[in-house]
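In keeping with the milestone schedule agreed at the kick-off meeting, the structural modelling team has produced records for the first pair of proteins. Each record is given below as a sequence line and a C-alpha cell line. The laboratory manager (R.T.) confirmed that both were archived under the project's standard naming scheme.
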Amino acid sequence: VINYVAIKKDAIYANCFDVICQYMENHGVTIEELMTQEGCESDGLHPTDRVQKIMAEHIMRTIGLTQKIPGAKW
C-alpha cells in the first residue's frame, strides 16, 4: 500500500523491506541471523546495528546522498 501511494503521489519511498530481503538472499543469511548480534540481547523486534546500517545506506542512496568512503579525507 505504501509503495502504491508513493508511486501515485510521485513521492520518494525507500523500501527497506525489499532491501533486507535482497540482502538475505545475496548473503545467504536468515532474518534470525540478521536479528542476532553478539553482545546484544535482541528482542526480535528492533533491528540490530547490522540491519540499521543496511537500511540507512539504502535510505541515503534513495534520497541521493553520498556516503563517506572509509579513509577518505573529505
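The second protein of the pair:
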Amino acid sequence: PDESFLIFSSPRSPAPAKTSDLFIVFRTPAGWSAPIDLREVVSDKVFGVEARLSPDLKTLYFSNQINKDGIKVPKENYIWQVDISSLLKAHGL
C-alpha cells in the first residue's frame, strides 16, 4: 500500500524455460532496485503467477501448476502461500 515494494511474475532469467518466477523490487531513493528472484531467496518452490499479498503484507499467495506431491499438472492450477516477513524485514520494512 505504501509502494515500498512490488512483487511481479516474469519468465525473465533466471526463471527456467516456460516458467514464470516471482520477483520483488524495492523502492530506493534512486528508483526501483534490481529484481530479486523469490525462488532464489525464499524457496525453490516460490514461482508462478497471480501474486497476491495478505492484508498484513506478511504472506504471499500465488498459483502454479505444481501439485502437493511436486508433480506438474499442465491443465490445473494450485494456490500456494509463503511467509515473506523476514525478507521484508531484511529490507527495512
